[in-house]
């Protein structure tokens, strides 16, 4: 059974929007406190990894980047997507900064055997799609018994 809500004169209802100025002030304080630190860690873009019958598919959100600003490499079965988002020039006084900039890095370990010679990567509408074909194996095979 829900209890009735009692409101008194002068009570205000707090909404998430009411906290925005507080969050912005906290962000400014944190940025001011840590602005002298130069060892910036890379951030990881939002990434989806899926598997089909014949390939692994990695999709990474990289809006605003061109293909020559992204590096895709493979070492053994570890796929690495790296690059850097340049800080955009400010226009006037900044009130909020939510878009990421700086170095980014995403590493995905592929669980099965792959065909490294047939990897395909494409960039469309801010999404990088890397398709890594699985290595071809003979599923049905007759084995001759010797002796």
TrEMBL record:
Boundaries of every SHSP domain copy: 38-147
SUPFAM superfamilies membership: HSP20-like chaperones
Pfam families: HSP20 (PF00011)
Source organism, top-level taxon: Bacteria
Keyword Ribonucleoprotein belongs to the record: no
Keywords: Stress response
This protein's record includes keyword Cytoplasm: no
Protein family (similarity comment): Belongs to the small heat shock protein (HSP20) family.
Name recorded for this polypeptide: Heat shock protein Hsp20
